[in-house]
Amino acid sequence: MESLPITIQVLSLLGAISFMVFIARLIVKGKLREEYSFIWIACTIVLIIFSVWRTGLTQISLLLGVYYPPSLIFLLGLFAVIGFLVHLSVVISKLQQSIKDLTHEVAFLKKEMAEKKRHDGLVLSEDTEQTPAH
Q1: Residue 34 near residue 27 (C-beta atoms within 8 A)
Q2: 126 phi and psi, to 5 degrees?
Q3: Domain spans of the chain?
Q4: Which sequence ranges form a coiled-coil region, renumbered to this chain (predicted)?
Q5: What does each C-alpha distance from 121 to 37, 114, 124, 129 come to in angstroms?
Q6: Quick one: 16 exposed, middle or buried, by C-beta within 10 A (0-12, 13-18, 19+)?
Q7: What would the pLDDT profile of 66-111 be if each residue is shown by its tens digit?
C-alpha cells in the first residue's frame, strides 16, 4: 500500500494543531471544562502521531486485518464518538436528577415560607385586632 501524499500529511498536521489550539483557547476562556477536554486532546494527539508517522496507519491496519487504512480511522472515530455520547448522556442524566431535587427543595422552601408568612400574618392580625381594642 502507498503511504499518504505529503500534502495530505501537512494538511492533517495543520488541522490537528489548529484543533489543539482551539481546544486550548476554549479551556483558557472557561468555555470547556478540563475533564471534557481530555478526550479531544487525546484524539488530536493520535491524529498528530498518524500525520507525522506516515506508514504507521498502514502498519497498524495491516496488523489488525483492516484492508483500507482510512477505514480504521473512521472506525476508531466512530467508537470514540459513541463513547463520548454515552458519557454525555450519563452527565445529563445526573444533571437532570440534580435539577429535579433542587426543584423539590425550592418548592418545599416556598411552602414553608408561605406557611410562616401566613402564621406571622395571623399573629399580626391578632395583634392588630388587639391593638384597636386597647
Answers
A1: yes
A2: -65, -40
A3: 32-128
A4: 92-119
A5: 54, 10, 5, 12
A6: buried
A7: 888 888 888 988 998 999 899 899 999 999 999 999 999 999 999 9
